[in-house]
Amino acid sequence: MSKDVLNVVKKKTGKSVSEKDIYKLASGVKPSTMQSDAQLRQLIKQVSGLVNVPVSESTMNELIQAIKSSKMNGNSMEQLMKMISKK
Fold it and tell me: Is the entire prediction scored with pTM above 0.70?
């Protein structure tokens, strides 16, 4: 995983996230996760909890729509982390 992603998370949230934490989350992500609102909502909550930053319902809905409308590879946790960190 790119150190850039970890640095972006730290810069945006003030929290450090380890590669181990990211890989632990990523291990549960399947291509089908990117198409399921419920699974995406759960993943966003997990990431939010990891960095201890609350995500509002409206932001969560925006993230879900952005993820589902993008042609993002469902196996790319790094790409997902970049998308989430931009919000």
Answer: no
